[in-house]
Design goal:
This protein is of the alpha/beta class. Helices cover about 30% and strands about 25% of the residues.
Length: about 375
């Protein structure tokens, strides 16, 4: 029997497994599909909330901690697996920011590099970007990671670790309980038991927890994205305008996203979203009108009240924990949020205050009442 059983093989689940395995624990991961193929794959990979000054302080704390962890994690995974997560720190250009003064005040308080720049500056950095005449904002320290390859690297590392067992294509049907203690899970292929169970099911977390009579306010929020294949270097930095973004990859792939849709678990794409995303892309980089869309896809974010995830032991039960509800910032917050939970699981001194994220009974009730 493993020390820990992790439900969900996304970035949150895999990083949790990696940290536990690094600490010498025996870990089992159970994933209904292939690890890293849901929202962890579908997002853009910006290692920051889109407008970080608009988030509550607990989210800012997690994002700052995670931002500092990604360069080391990416280099580690490249050396261990040969798969490059392509961490790139080339900064972010913000166009049309209507609360620039708030952003600048936030940056000064945190000693975060952020400055107001001219259209000429934008043109020097990104000649293909259409900058408005009014000033833009420039954050030189912001990075991005190629999230599908991050998922591949995490999966490859876990598969190579002798104290980790990865079960893919195995869907959890129910929890095994004795009184108020969770002992493991049941699947069509048999039972899996562990000393502690960690639920990292992303948008599916609330559904998984229903059998424990826990109403976790986490819901699927669909996001559609498109990508163009362009010559490498057409755009080199992340550019954000009116809540949407362009993210360049080293091989010239340009990601454009994303929509926000309350559509349940539907992941279909549609022509309306395609047209809207194309319009956004061409407003930022007019030259994209000369290219056709190479890819169009959708993913499901785990939406939660105020985007604040639930991290910790579930009330009313023994032996079961959760790490879910990161909304648009799962990859952004993954290193910090998994570290918070692993500290709790192993009884270590907390490096980050876990209080704002605990799934206490009071917080669950408040979330439901406020929904």
């Amino acid at each position: 029997m493993s020390n820990f059983l992790i439900i969900g093989g996304g970035v949150i689940g895999m990083m949790t497994a990696l940290q536990l395995a690094d600490a010498g624990q025996h870990v089992t991961v159970v994933e209904r599909g292939i690890c890293g193929q849901e929202s962890s794959w579908a997002g853009g990979g910006i290692v920051s909330p889109l407008y970080p000054w608009r988030y509550a302080p607990p989210i800012s704390q997690l994002s700052r901690w995670s931002e500092g962890a990604y360069p080391t994690l990416s280099l580690r995974l490249l050396e261990e697996t040969g798969i490059d997560p392509e961490y790139r720190q080339k900064g972010l250009l913000y166009l049309n920011v209507d609360d620039a003064e708030v952003a600048l005040c936030w940056a000064r308080e945190l000693a975060k590099p952020l400055e107001r720049v001219s259209a000429e500056f934008v043109h020097q950095k990104e000649p293909m970007v259409a900058a408005a005449q009014e000033s833009a904002l420039w954050m030189p320290t912001l990075g991005s990671v190629r999230n599908p390859r991050l998922g591949q690297a995490l999966r490859a590392r876990l598969l190579a670790m002798p104290n980790v067992v990865v079960n893919e294509g195995r869907e959890v049907s129910s929890f095994i309980t004795n009184g108020q203690q969770v002992l493991g899970v049941a699947t069509a292929q048999g039972e899996l038991r562990a000393e502690k169970v960690v639920v990292c099911g992303g948008a599916w977390t609330a559904t998984l927890l229903e059998s424990l009579t826990i109403r976790l306010p986490v819901r699927p929020v669909k996001g559609q994205m498109i990508a163009y294949q362009t010559p490498p270097g057409l755009v080199q930095r992340v550019v954000l305008k009116d809540g949407r973004y362009i993210i360049p990859r080293s091989d010239g792939l340009l990601l454009v996203g994303s929509t926000l849709e309350e559509a349940g678990f539907d992941k279909t794409t549609d022509a309306e979203a395609l047209a809207s995303l194309k319009k956004t892309a061409e407003s930022i980089v007019p030259a994209l009108s000369d290219y056709s869309v190479a890819y169009h896809w959708a993913g499901l974010r785990p939406g939660s009240p105020d985007g604040i995830p639930f991290i910790g032991a579930l009330p009313g039960w023994s032996g079961v924990y959760v790490n879910a509800g990161h909304y648009r910032n799962g990859l952004v917050l993954a290193p910090a949020s998994t570290h918070i939970l692993v500290d709790q699981l192993l009884g270590r001194e907390a490096l980050i205050d876990p209080t704002p994220f605990q799934p206490t009974a009071d917080r669950l009730i408040e979330s439901i009442v406020g929904a």
